[in-house]
Design brief:
The complex is a heterodimer of chains A (384) and B (166). With 384 residues, chain A is an all-alpha fold. Helix content of chain A is 68%, strand content 0%. The relative contact order of chain B is 0.06. The chains are: A mainly alpha (384), B mainly alpha (166).
């Protein structure tokens, strides 16, 4: 029974294929089995995005002591649909001075990487769209292209606020990409594979990487850099509305704006999903079906992102860059060393040693980054 | 299975045609930023070819390094060129004749090298995966690897020194 629920989506796909197989030739069946996965992902992404917007508005509403949307359907459950209809019927405004090619290209291409990265995420046991041997690298490679399209949109708008937002996006993504890649290397080192499936399989039976000293540090590093990489609060400088209106999507309206919005929420989901996969054991967990575990963990991480948004003020540009280069980057390097020692030594010693190294280095980085306020001068003879 | 193979071959040639069109547009488009975008399309297309040939590691590296890093560098160049955003500034092919000679020479050398290389492989070769590549870097090619890392370190320190002196 439990096994059936666990494999319910795999079974559903198999049943569809079994119904069709007597009527269609073999090559058609291969194409259909590919198309089922692609269509599922292309529907899944936008649907997740729509309900994440509702969840976020509800969450932030509760944090700010108000209800959030509650007029469309029970608990406002139809709100995302009505928002979608509104977005589709709005006028698409292209500024007169804008570069039509880049203005058109930006929102369309920005959505493609956010949909593509879903293909290497293991949603449950045997539930991965394509088990690439370089899954993690594929994720980072594809996700890194979105910077270019954000800048294309910003440049094509020919608006100085858009361009400022685009510049900020590029600078931020370039600086946070390095600690992000380095924070995931310890897990790759321990598993010895780039495949997301192999990483999840290595954390079987509550041996999630987050329970090891290097895993905890890696989890925090990866989650923070992930939040920065998808431009969410407190790292949402590219669209800081108090300074540069709406950043790179200032000049967009209607469905083009909705595409940016969609890409942002889908990126938030996929980064949370990858953090879950690498450090929180993916779909591993007792009793409940595997996909339920996966979505529960992912939604906890997304809720933490929303909690951040309800709590922290936006960082300044220099704070943002300093945080990445002086705080996260050295810690990521030391974490790599701690993970290597953890693999090399045997059980009681490795935990203790890597814990000590990481504690000392966190303290040292904290002390080294402390603000040096000059001592207050006392002017002895100034007023005489 | 022949129809399936036919479809796959067609897709492969269509991708190559797309790459050639993007590359041609990259060098003929008037606007520099547009040509940068077409360059990105060309590079992504080449990565797609690598994926098609099951060299997944090289494909991911192609996207990560060329589209992720080098295109970002080009974007920085665009940001730092103040007149790039202004459509009033004419962008012309004035220096076409001067450039023709060295480009023709390079093209000639490349084409003759391509024609001379024997391309037939007797048996399907296994694609190099990340594990063998890493082992080769740490055993057989450890000296060039260390030299490259030293060069990068020197470049890094040099950049910091240049940026620091006000």
């Amino acid at each position: 029974m439990l096994n059936t629920i666990d494999q319910i989506f795999i079974k559903a796909k198999q049943i569809i294929l079994d119904i069709l197989s007597p009527f269609l030739p073999e090559w058609m069946m291969i194409l259909i089995s590919i198309f089922i996965v692609i269509v599922t992902l292309c529907v899944f992404g936008p649907v997740v995005m729509m309900y994440l917007t509702l969840l976020e508005r509800k969450f932030i509403g509760r944090m700010q002591n108000r209800y959030g949307p509650n007029r469309c359907g029970i608990f406002g459950l139809l709100q995302p649909l009505s928002d979608g209809i509104k977005m589709f019927t709005k006028e698409d405004i292209v500024p007169q001075k804008a570069d039509p090619f880049a203005h058109f290209l930006g929102p369309i291409t920005v959505i493609i990487p956010s949909l593509l990265v879903f293909s290497v995420i293991p949603f449950g046991r045997n539930m991965i769209p394509s088990d690439l041997s370089i899954g993690i690298l594929f994720f980072f490679a594809v996700a890194s292209t979105s910077t270019l399209w954000i800048f294309t949109a910003a440049w094509g708008s020919r608006n100085k606020f858009s361009l400022l937002g685009g510049m900020r996006a590029v600078a931020q993504m370039v600086s946070y990409e390095i600690p992000m890649l380095l924070s995931i290397v310890p897990a790759l080192l321990v598993v010895g594979s780039f495949s997301t499936v192999a990483i999840v399989n290595a954390q079987e039976g509550l041996q999630w990487f987050v329970f090891t000293p290097w895993g905890l540090v890696g989890f925090i590093l990866f989650f923070l850099t992930g939040v920065a990489e998808v431009n969410r609060c407190p790292f949402d400088l590219p669209e800081g509305e108090s300074e540069i209106i709406a950043g790179f999507h200032t000049e967009y309206s209607g469905m083009k704006f909705a595409l940016f919005y969609m890409a942002e929420y889908m990126n938030a989901f996929s980064v949370s999903a990858l953090v879950t996969t690498v450090y929180l054991g993916g779909w591993q967990g007792p009793i409940l079906p595997s996909w339920l575990w996966f979505f529960a963990k992912t939604f906890v991480l997304i809720s933490i992102m929303m909690w951040f948004r309800g709590t922290f003020p936006r960082m300044r540009v220099d704070q943002l860059m300093g945080f990445a280069w002086r705080g996260l980057l050295p810690l990521a390097f030391i974490n790599l060393l701690a993970a290597a020692l953890w693999v090399h030594l045997s059980f009681p010693l490795n935990d203790i040693l890597s814990f000590c190294i990481l504690t000392v280095s966190v303290l040292m980085i904290y002390v080294a980054n402390r603000k040096v306020a000059p001592k207050k001068r006392i002017y002895k003879y100034a007023y005489e | 299975m022949t129809l399936f193979q036919f479809l796959a071959t067609t897709a492969f040639y269509a991708a190559m045609l797309g790459i050639l069109i993007a590359a041609a547009l990259c060098v003929t488009v008037r606007n520099l930023f547009h040509s940068a975008v077409f360059l990105a399309f060309t590079l992504i297309g080449i990565a797609m070819l690598y994926f098609f040939l099951q060299a997944e590691f090289i494909a991911a590296m192609q996207i990560l390094l060329y589209v992720g890093a080098i295109m970002t560098l080009i974007v920085f160049a665009v940001m730092l060129t103040s007149r790039m955003g202004n459509p009033a500034v004419p962008q012309s092919f004035k220096n076409k004749k001067i450039v023709f000679l060295p480009l023709g020479l390079v093209g000639f050398i490349l084409i003759s090298a391509i024609l001379k290389t024997p391309w037939e492989t007797s048996e399907p070769q296994t694609a190099v995966n990340a594990v063998t590549l890493g082992k080769a870097l740490m055993n057989q090619y450890v000296f060039p690897f260390e030299v490259v890392s030293l060069v990068l370190l020197v470049a890094l320190i040099g950049a910091i020194v240049i940026a620091r002196s006000e």
